[in-house]
Specification:
By secondary structure, this protein is mainly beta. It has 2 domains: about 110 residues, Immunoglobulins (Immunoglobulin-like, Sandwich); about 110 residues, Immunoglobulins (Immunoglobulin-like, Sandwich). The strands form 4 sheets. Strands 1, 11, 12, 13, 14 and 17 form a 6-stranded mixed β-sheet that branches. The chain is globular, with a radius of gyration of 20 Å. This is Secreted protein.
Length: about 270
């Protein structure tokens, strides 16, 4: 799901599972080795050439192997013919899922489309790492706090430290201090969440915490990928997260049942 507000609520059908939606279709295009090429065809069958920028880019491209390894978040170049190209060496054999986040100018509505591409060779699947609250990347330690539950909104924070010292000078990356992509193990249902606040708003601190509000669509295992920028370099911290059933809501004290009362309530 592409989220351009602070909250990420799971729809009935999670994003990223469809190659075509609302008349728009993601079409892979043959390209030289080491280059990924594709286009977005519109309702008229022609390639879309005009987009509304979302977080500083016309299109966000996410690529990950179906065993949830080899995550990439990149930004391809749009040609005059409506074909997007991106240098992308996929050295490991396997099936990869390609996600495109974009908003066509004709509607201005964000869409996420996904398609599989295949790389021939000796496929050796990578086991999913065990769930953990911390992730290490290039000398940085990122700590995840919060308990996401299926179908229930949750606040989570990701705190960045370097050599044990909290990082308080995170740098803006695509108009935010962090970008969180969540993928469900099994079908790679997709969620893309942006944090609350914005760099330079006079309120949002530049770390160490990056706060998100998100909702996972079902019970299951997920991979969280956090992109953050520091020292001029974008790094990705990866987590495995188990989402269980939501905790029961607190109930008011029991009282005698009224046989004439109807059922008035709501689902949280």
């Amino acid at each position: 799901m592409t989220v351009h507000a602070h909250h990420a609520a799971a729809p009935a059908t999670p994003e990223g599972l469809q190659v075509s939606r609302d008349g728009y279709t993601l079409v892979p295009v043959a390209a030289p080795a080491g280059t990924l090429a594709f286009r977005i065809d519109g309702p008229d069958g022609a390639p879309v050439r005009e987009y509304v920028p979302q977080h500083d880019k016309d299109l966000h491209l996410i690529v990950v192997r179906r065993d949830l390894s080899g995550f990439r978040h990149v930004h391809p170049v749009l040609g005059e013919d409506g074909v997007w190209t991106q240098d992308l060496a996929l050295d490991e054999a396997g099936t990869y899922r390609v996600f495109t986040d974009f908003a066509p100018a004709a509607t201005g509505s964000p869409l996420t489309l996904g398609v599989d591409i295949h790389v021939a060779g000796d496929f050796r699947p990578v086991p999913l790492p065990a769930p953990a609250a911390t992730a290490e990347v290039d000398g940085y330690t990122v700590t995840l706090a919060g308990e996401p539950a299926a179908g229930q909104g949750a606040h989570i924070t990701l705190s960045v430290a370097r050599d044990g010292v909290p990082v308080t000078d995170l740098e803006p990356y695509l108009a935010a201090f962090g970008h969180l992509v969540v993928l469900r193990d099994g079908d790679l249902a997709y969620l893309h969440v942006h944090p609350g606040g914005a760099p330079g708003d006079g309120v949002t601190p530049a770390g160490p915490e990056i706060a998100f509000h998100t909702e996972l669509p079902s019970v299951g295992t997920y991979r969280f990928f956090l992109d953050f920028r520091h020292g001029g370099v974008v790094r990705t911290a990866e987590f495995t997260v188990e989402a269980g059933k939501p905790a029961p809501h607190a109930h008011a004290p029991e009282r005698a049942a009224d046989p004439h009362a109807g059922h008035h309530g709501h689902h949280g």
